[in-house]
């Protein structure tokens, strides 16, 4: 167990990282993304003004490449820091992210929400989102499945979240020694006085169970 000063230092480091991630995501979306969009519209205008079929086709291909790059940057910006997280909260941010997640990986994720939602801090929302994001990334990388379920259950004094899949599963003890991502999930929840329990059975699937005190 960490001492309180160490916990405070870890919290400060993670918060500093999140602030920088938020800044980069904003720059990608509003800076680089907007510049590329201006280039894209300019290429479309040039395409309409060009008479030579070969050149028109070439410019069209360039415009499509720019459009694809814009979509990739928007996805990256949302993965780094969903705009809805700070304004609308955890649930809308998860819904927004899951749409991109499914379109990217082809994995359908059922999102369930039960109970009376309680307002939580932005720091707690970011932490919960990051843990869910890591769990979903692991499903895409390793689970070999096309379906998953995220369940949020609000009850007096506690929010419980479970992320489950029926993929190929893994040896948790062995994975904990190799994966910094799994350890980071547990550490992040500890820093906001929550818990993260990872359980898995080979051939049966994996369950990530998160709990957070809410008031």
Automatic annotation (TrEMBL):
Got a GO cellular component term for this one?
A: membrane
Keyword Amino-acid biosynthesis included in the entry's annotation:
no
> Looking at the keywords, is Nucleotide-binding present?
yes
- Please name the top-level EC class of this enzyme: transferase
One annotated GO molecular function is:
protein dimerization activity
Record CDD domains = HATPase_UhpB-NarQ-NarX-like (cd16917)
Q: Report the catalytic activity.
A: ATP + protein L-histidine = ADP + protein N-phospho-L-histidine
Q: What is its EC number?
A: 2.7.13.3
Q: Which SUPFAM superfamilies match?
A: ATPase domain of HSP90 chaperone/DNA topoisomerase II/histidine kinase
Q: Hey, what's the signal peptide range on this chain?
A: none
Domain Signal transduction histidine kinase subgroup 3 dimerisation and phosphoacceptor, residue spans: 22-85
Sorted keywords for this record are: ATP-binding, Kinase, Nucleotide-binding, Phosphoprotein, Transferase, Two-component regulatory system
The residue ranges of the Histidine kinase/HSP90-like ATPase domain are 126-214
Q: Which InterPro entries match?
A: HATPase_C_sf, HATPase_dom, Sensor_HK_TwoCompSys, Sig_transdc_His_kin_sub3_dim/P
* Protein's UniProt name: histidine kinase
Gene source species: Sporosarcina globispora
Q: Which lineage ranks, top first, belong to the organism behind this chain?
A: Bacteria, Bacillati, Bacillota, Bacilli, Bacillales
């Amino acid at each position: 167990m960490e001492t309180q000063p160490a916990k405070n230092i870890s919290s400060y480091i993670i918060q500093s990282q999140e602030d920088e991630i938020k800044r980069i995501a904003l720059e990608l979306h509003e800076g680089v993304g907007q510049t590329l969009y201006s280039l894209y519209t300019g290429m479309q205008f040039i395409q309409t003004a060009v008479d030579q079929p070969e050149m028109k086709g070439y410019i069209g291909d360039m415009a499509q490449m720019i459009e694809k790059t814009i979509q990739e940057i928007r996805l990256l910006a949302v993965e780094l820091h969903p705009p809805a997280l700070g304004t609308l909260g955890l649930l809308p941010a998860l819904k927004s992210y899951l749409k991109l997640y499914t379109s990217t990986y082809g994995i359908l994720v059922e999102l369930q929400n039960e109970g009376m939602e309680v307002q939580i801090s932005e720091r707690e929302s970011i932490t919960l989102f990051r843990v869910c994001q890591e769990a979903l990334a692991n499903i895409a990388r390793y689970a070999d499945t096309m379906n998953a379920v995220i369940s949020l259950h609000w009850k007096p004094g506690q929010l419980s979240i479970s992320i489950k899949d029926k993929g190929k599963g893994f040896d948790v003890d062995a994975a904990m020694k190799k994966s910094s991502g799994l350890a980071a999930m547990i550490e992040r929840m500890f820093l906001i006085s929550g818990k993260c329990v990872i359980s898995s059975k080979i051939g049966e699937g994996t369950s990530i169970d998160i709990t957070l005190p809410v008031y």
